[in-house]
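Re: How this chain folds, sequence and tokenised backbone to follow
Notation: Tokens come from a learned vocabulary of local backbone shapes, not from coordinates.
Start of record: The labelled sequence and token lines come straight after this line.
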Amino acid sequence: MIHRIVLALVAATLLAGCEFYREADPVEVERARYVSPEPPSITLLSMVDNSDGRSAHSALLINGSEQVIYDPAGTFQHPDLPRRGDIHYGVTPRFLDYYERYHARFSHYVHAQKVPVSMETANRILANAQATGKTPKMFCAGSVTGVLQPVAPFTHVRGSLFPETVRRDFAAIPGVEDSYVREYDEGKNNAWERTSAPAAGPVN
């Protein structure tokens, strides 16, 4: 009986898109706060499948009054990076590098699309992300578009359940800056390259 109850609880948790992690308290979040010296920006981080050239997951790097990663339905965790809901706080360049290398593997690369914005715009998007709460599995694109759509210049980004739709809509934003992170040592996960050149192969 106990075994069946445990299995039922695990199944319910998975179906709800929950993950086993300890949510950081406000003191931990404030202690980790990182303010980037770079101008404010919003960066769409897409994890692109090398086999078909389509994005399989969407997240946002939000650089406003502080720098965070909004990673709805994501699996990334780091013991030194406080997380509340779907937001990782205290994202220094080192932690951003960890995040990108975590996702860049032989099967996928990371496509970053950076859009310069005002501080007000970045903070509005951060507030939208904080108000959204946790996202069930497979609904990352819907949550990303939900926090972006009310705020210019992202009003044309269509509400979608498909990360590739979000990536293509971002490509149409004037002034977007592209960069890519790829792994090039199959199966070893210890050698990556960062470049501004698009990937060769399937549709990009």
Observations:
- Helices lie at 2-15, 26-32, 93-103, 119-132, 140-148, 163-171.
- Residues 2-195 form one domain.
